[in-house]
Design goal:
Length: 341
Amino acid sequence: MNNTEPGTRGVSWLNRSNIALIVALLALLLLGWQWLDARQRNADLELALSRRLSAFETRNKESEILARQAQEATREALAKLDLLEQKLAESQSHQVALEEMYQEMSRNRDEWALADIEQVLLIASQQLQLAGNVKAALAALQTADNRLQRIDRPQFFTLRKAINKDIEQLQSLPLPDVAGISLRLDGLAAEVDQLPLIPGHVGNDEKPAPHMPLPDGFWQRLGTEAWQDFKQLVRIQNLKKPELPLLPPTQAYFLRENLKLRLLSARIALLQRNEASFKADLKAAQDWLNSYYDATDKRVRVALASLQQMEQSRLAIDLPDLSASLGAARMFKLGREKGGK
């Protein structure tokens, strides 16, 4: 029993030492593997770090390039900005100068337009007061209103209001048909030579008969003149109206010419708006037609009816005063002159 115990102990110790050795080897192997693994990891980490550093350096270089480009772009932008600021300042100065020039031109244009309109209003007033030409005055007022309408300025509203008021006054006037009456008078004057005279009361010679040539001898010439004077002493006519004065046959021409002059005088009075003279001439023409012309003829009756109708025309009308428009224009002009000073 005692002999086997030491051997058993030896084996047990060997076993233990082997186990310890194995454990130590295993631990050593484990440590070596861990060291190798840690080294591999470090190598991988270093490689990754180097890659990242390389990428960072690349990006850093790119960033530096971009930063330099950005700086250059900023400098260029600043230079452009300075240039734009200079141009903007110049543009603002030019704009101010243009605005001043435009205002000056606008003032001048308004002054020119106002002076022109004032002249037109003055012409309208003269046509109305001196010549009594309502149509010309109305046309002048409408021209002034159209010019103000084209200008389209609020400051001209009061002036346009006064002009429109005068236009309404002129449009409400009962205007005679001066042109129509004048044409009718011309037509009557042209027909006078064709109107028949009263048969047996006035001779039908249209023009005075020319004098017969006198003989060369004294006694013959004296006898011829005495015979012509004797023929003028006695005249036989058939009178329907004995109260009328007798006219020689050679006076028919002068009767017609005087009637034409009466119609022409009536036309002149019509154009002058002289109603009294116009009606007096028409009345005299009617009396002559009734006294010396054949009233049974249709042409004479038409002429008398036309004269009577024209005699009813009213030429004298109460003309309005255009002082309101002129006053408004002058007050506006005076206000601008005071405002300019």
